[in-house]
Amino acid sequence: MRSHLLYWPSLLIAAIGGIVVAAGAAYEPARTLLVGPMSLLAAGITLVLFLRLLVDPACRGGINAANREMMGGQGFQFRLTPILDPRWGLFGTRVGSPLLRAIRVLILAELVAAMVLTGRGAPDLVLLAAASLGVVMMLSLIHIGVTTPAPGARGPQSTLG
User: Fold this and answer.
1) CA-based, 20 to 30 A from 137: which of 1, 33, 52, 54?
2) From its phi and psi, is residue 3 left (phi > 0), alpha (psi between -120 and 50) or beta?
């Protein structure tokens, strides 16, 4: 996937958000100083990526084609994809680059850990972990949309930038 303007900065912000969640859980001054601004930044990036996803018709067409492929051409049906599916699962080859998949798994684990910590009074860590996970999920969706050709198209239609 060719990526320019949005991919690498967004991935960097998500990774920094994951680091801040870990640091905030271990070190209280880091939590009070960094978690709030990083949460707002990650949520803003998630919103920008979502709007980018909505505006690009080629990306939407790719996502629709990927949805049909996942469902086996059957249209809408309620079917859960196995988490270890080699193409569409958590580590699947179709849902992002290896770096994006690794960051997504780490942030997902941090989100679960932050939810456990909320009993200790850390809802701000959950918010940051969720916002960072939102960034990597939007990047995964854009990757799927860009790399899956829509019906009638010859190849990837768009870049991430």
Assistant:
1) 33
2) beta
d(CA 149, CA 117): 42
Copy the structure tokens of residue 79.
């079917």
Distance CA 139, CA 130 (A): 14
The CA distance from 90 to 82, in Å, is 9
pLDDT digits (tens, 9 = 90+) for 130-147: 999 999 999 988 888 888
Q: How far is CA 76 from the centre of its chain?
A: 23
pLDDT at 110 over 60: yes
Closest by CA to 73, choosing from 81, 64, 82, is 64
- For 36-53, write each residue's pLDDT tens digit: 999 999 999 999 999 988
